[in-house]
Design goal:
By secondary structure, the protein is an all-alpha fold. The protein contains seven helices and no strands. The chain is 78% helix and 0% strand. The longest helix has 31 residues.
């Protein structure tokens, strides 16, 4: 089936030498999430950070859980069977692992209903690193950190997200326990 929107996006990306995967994976979702960002920015400008965070949280929890969780169901329904697995290559599996790890860290961080500046910097650094490093590694593989190869970058960031989620999870539990004891 022909999709003019997707084809136009890919053609434009090809003209400007932008990786097709990067366009479909990042640019299209950013454009589709612009309304949520606009609402969050408006709340922030009105000094209502909690409302801004809440609007982004509700939008992203929906996307992270419902959307990703529905993929196997839709695939199974379209094939009228659970016996046929979803055909995915290593890059697609790594992307799903990365998305799950990002989601877990986001949920753990946002469970306290506040983000510190350090948490924001960590999220930004991890996001920027996993976005830019694969393309950088294709151009300059000798400069990749920790002796990584390009195909190892997303799994590396996935594990980093999981470790950060475990760290923040234990910190959040300790802080909640201290708050509960202080109230008692």
């Amino acid at each position: 089936m022909r999709n003019p929107s997707r084809e136009g996006l890919i053609t434009t990306g090809t003209l400007y030498h932008i990786n097709k995967f990067l366009l479909v994976q990042w640019l299209a979702p950013i454009a589709s999430e612009a309304p949520e960002f606009t609402v969050a920015i408006m709340f922030s400008l009105r000094k209502q950070a909690g409302m801004a965070l809440g609007s982004l949280l509700s939008s992203n929890l929906n996307q992270w859980t419902l959307l990703v969780g529905m993929i196997p169901w839709v695939y199974a329904l379209s094939h009228h069977s659970w016996s046929q697995p979803i055909p995915m290559n290593a890059d697609q599996m790594n992307e799903i692992l990365l998305t799950a790890a990002q989601s877990l860290l986001g949920i753990v961080m946002l469970s306290a209903l506040r983000l510190s500046f350090g948490q924001v910097l960590l999220l930004f650094a991890l996001f920027l690193g996993q976005l830019i490093l694969p393309e950088f590694g294709r151009l300059h593989p000798q400069w990749l950190p920790f002796g990584l190869r390009v195909e190892q970058i997303h799994p590396f960031f996935s594990y980093t997200y999981f470790i950060a989620a475990l760290t923040f999870s234990s910190t959040t539990r300790v802080n909640c326990s201290r708050s509960a004891m202080a109230l008692a």
